[in-house]
Specification:
The protein is α+β, with helices and mostly antiparallel strands. The chain contains 5 helices and 8 strands, in the order ααββαααββββββ.
Amino acid sequence: MTDANPLDQPVDPERVGSEQPEPTGPRVTDKRRLDPETGKVRDVRPGSAAGQAEVDADVVADEALEVLEAEVVTGPGEVVEGEDVHPDTTLAADLTRDLQRLQAEYVNYKKRVDRDREMHRDLAVASVVEALLPVLDDIHLARQHGDLEGGPFSAIADKLDGILTKIGVERYGQPGDAFDPNVHEALMHIEAELAEGTEGTTVVQVLQPGYRMGQRIIRVARVAVADPQT
């Protein structure tokens, strides 16, 4: 008795179709809402093939959003590192912090240099004017006595006064000014009739004028003062 040849047995077509191997290779899903052939809107309702593809796409987008949210930026140049932060991101944050610190240090340095430059300029001008004080006092006395009127030295004295004004030096002190111990030095206290309504100690004579440059006093004005009569 011979065994039946399995090749001679009839083949069930439905069985053969169900036992075909699964296709291999990349799987492409068309997620376009419009059918490229008909131009109609595809069915994207839940449960349909197109609707399931859209749901899968939303899941992928949500996962990508969660990865991005792991990198939280808390301020300029500061990054809270998550699990998947790229090393270049941390390096960029460190370099940004270094640059901001250098910029702040440069701004502070520039302000300090400008302030020191102005201070040194004022000190230099004040030292020169202080050295010229005896000459300025002689010119002032000569002008008070009328010795400079019509003489050749009048133009020289006017030019010197113009130079002092140009560099910011001011001569101050006039009879009738209210006495201020911060800018006046009282060398004499005399009895004198003051204008009616005058209150407080008043300058009645300027012995040596004062010189100042802005808020800096080069020399206080030396004056004689009087008190109002009671």
